[in-house]
């Protein structure tokens, strides 16, 4: 429930704090005193968007803060899902800066307006004359029936099975479309795969072939250069090896006189040995090198094939061709196995449809069991609030065979007649604003017995009624407040007298400024306020006596 509402720098309010009672809280005041301002402030912490800039002092930010006692409402999972710190006494704060920027907080953690609205809907239900429009929506009508039938678990089971069926059906349709397109491309894919698979592609093959090609194309130059190098080392008159041998002999001849020469001779000898190995390898390479026209032709043909495939498929390497081949193989495998996939998915869709239809029928049966009960109880309440001839009929009509919606396999209609001889029609077509308010009050009183809302706000629900009817409406609201916290804004003394707590909104002038304020009335203050509601600003003794009688109930 809402414990405290704190408003700072909003519209005509400089700063005020309202501490609400757990039962019925009445708010009264003259037209224009600021009751709608308080409702506007409350709507901001419930996640509604800030329409325009409403600042008492345009240079300061507006702050609306509400403290809620939510210990009994089982909202832990909501807080956990949205990564919020849970507390039995939760504080919701909304701040709007002078430049129009808005921020929202739950227990000092910043939240989006979406999350704030989701939380607000679980804390407070605001009912105004405008809200009576929702009575004709299918969503609200099913909510009423499911609340009384206690069928939310059935509804959730159906919804989950319905969404699972829809997902499977969507996957089946997508697969059918994919198979259809693939069938048109099957021959093309097969041709491409056969061509690449027939090429017997080998990783790193192209580089090796290109190296072999270069060697074979330059075989004569290679052979000539190797032969020349070998002759320079061994076979010429000035062969390098012969000269190194002579140099080594000369150095060894003086090593007995010059100790350093021995080391130099050893180094020359080592070089001589290395060059002999080089000369031997040169000879061997020269003997092995020869021009093989047949091999060169084969290599050129193989490279030509590789280059042609790369150009055709817009790639730059054999490795990419191999990847393309593998992808084509996977596509062909998928196409060839699509019949099995289709059979599996079709069976899955049939099974999930069966489950969804079963759950839908259970939900529909549970709803049908309470239709007469809802209509009867609402009519009894309407009888007590001055609508003795009101008739409510709730009709569930099955959808076409095999058709389903997220709400089930039925459509729902609240048909209503307020007067004798009046044909039943959709409720918004035959009920006036005041009648709709009383119908909504009767419905919410019924729903509150089975799914008590934490707090309900009635914003001028008494429009269009007076006298004995107003007294009966007050009694219904009073009874409703035994199960939940109720906040009601009223212009009628018969309703205002029912409150456990009574707040008066008023305007006053301070330092050339008009401000709105609110005060909780004591017993004498309530008598005076209700007497003024009965007879005007200067109540008569009779009005005061009547006010006391109303308060005594």
From TrEMBL:
A Pfam entry, by short name: SMC_N
Keywords recorded for this protein, A-Z: ATP-binding, Coiled coil, DNA damage, DNA repair, Nucleotide-binding
Entries under CDD domains matching the protein: ABC_RecN
Gene Ontology process terms (BP): DNA recombination; DNA repair; SOS response
One example GO MF annotation: ATP binding
Record-linked InterPro entries: DNA_recomb/repair_RecN, P-loop_NTPase, RecF/RecN/SMC_N
Coiled-coil stretches noted in the UniProt entry, renumbered to this chain: 155-236
Domain of life: Bacteria
Domain RecF/RecN/SMC N-terminal: residue ranges: 3-510
SUPFAM superfamilies assigned to the protein according to its UniProt record, in alphabetical order: P-loop containing nucleoside triphosphate hydrolases (SSF52540)
Function: May be involved in recombinational repair of damaged DNA.
Family: Belongs to the RecN family.
Record protein name field: DNA repair protein RecN
Source organism of the structure: Sphingobacterium athyrii
Lineage: Bacteria, Pseudomonadati, Bacteroidota, Sphingobacteriia, Sphingobacteriales
The encoding gene: recN
């Amino acid at each position: 429930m809402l414990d405290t509402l704190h408003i700072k720098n909003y519209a005509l309010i400089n700063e005020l704090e309202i501490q609400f009672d757990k039962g019925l809280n009445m708010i009264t005041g003259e037209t224009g005193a600021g009751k709608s301002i308080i409702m506007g402030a409350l709507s901001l912490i419930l996640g509604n968007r800030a329409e325009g800039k409403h600042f008492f002092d345009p240079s300061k930010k507006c702050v609306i803060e509400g403290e809620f006692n939510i210990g009994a409402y089982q909202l832990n999972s909501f807080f956990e899902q949205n990564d919020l710190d849970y507390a039995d006494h939760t504080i919701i704060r909304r701040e709007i800066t002078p430049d129009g920027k808005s921020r929202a907080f739950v227990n000092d953690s910043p939240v989006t307006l979406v999350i704030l609205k989701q939380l607000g809907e679980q804390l407070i239900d605001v009912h105004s004359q405008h809200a009576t429009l929702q009575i004709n929506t299918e969503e609200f009508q099913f909510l009423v029936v499911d609340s009384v039938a206690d069928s939310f678990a059935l509804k959730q089971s159906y919804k989950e099975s319905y969404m699972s069926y829809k997902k499977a059906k969507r996957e089946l349709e997508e697969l059918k479309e994919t198979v259809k397109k693939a069938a048109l491309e099957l021959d093309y894919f097969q041709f491409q795969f056969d061509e690449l698979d027939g090429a017997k592609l080998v990783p790193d093959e192209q580089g090796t072939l290109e190296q072999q090609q270069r060697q074979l194309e330059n075989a004569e130059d290679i052979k000539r250069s190797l032969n020349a190098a070998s002759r320079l080392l061994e076979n010429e008159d000035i062969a390098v090896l012969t000269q190194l041998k002579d140099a080594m002999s000369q150095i060894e001849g003086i090593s007995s006189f010059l100790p350093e020469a021995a080391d130099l001779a050893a180094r020359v000898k080592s070089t001589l040995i290395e060059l002999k190995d080089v000369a031997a390898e040169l000879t061997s390479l020269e003997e092995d090198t020869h021009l093989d026209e047949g091999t060169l032709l084969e290599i050129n043909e193989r490279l030509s094939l590789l280059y042609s495939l790369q150009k055709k498929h817009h790639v730059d390497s054999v490795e990419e061709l191999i990847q393309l081949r593998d992808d084509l193989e996977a596509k062909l495998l998928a196409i060839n196995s699509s019949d099995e996939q289709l059979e599996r998915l079709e069976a899955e869709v049939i099974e999930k449809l069966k489950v969804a239809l079963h759950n839908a029928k259970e939900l529909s049966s549970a709803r049908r069991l309470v239709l007469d009960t809802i209509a009867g109880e609402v009519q009894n309440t309407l009888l007590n609030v001055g609508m003795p001839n009101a008739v409510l009929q709730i009709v569930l009509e099955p959808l076409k065979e095999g058709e389903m919606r997220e709400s089930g396999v039925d459509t729902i209609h609240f048909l209503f007649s307020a007067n004798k001889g009046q044909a039943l029609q959709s409720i918004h077509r035959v009920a006036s604003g005041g009648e709709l308010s009383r119908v909504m009050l009767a419905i919410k009183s019924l729903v509150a017995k089975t799914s008590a809302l934490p707090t309900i706000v009635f914003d001028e629900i008494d429009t269009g009624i007076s006298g004995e009817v107003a007294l009966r409406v007050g009694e219904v609201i009073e009874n409703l407040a035994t199960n939940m916290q109720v906040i009601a804004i009223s212009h009628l003394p018969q309703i205002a007298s029912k409150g456990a707590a009574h707040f008066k909104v008023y305007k006053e002038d301070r330092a050339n400024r008009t401000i709105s304020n609110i005060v909780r009335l004591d017993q004498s203050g309530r008598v005076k306020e209700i007497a003024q509601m009965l007879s005007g600003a200067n109540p008569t003794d009779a009005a005061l006596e009547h006010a006391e009688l109303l308060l005594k109930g």
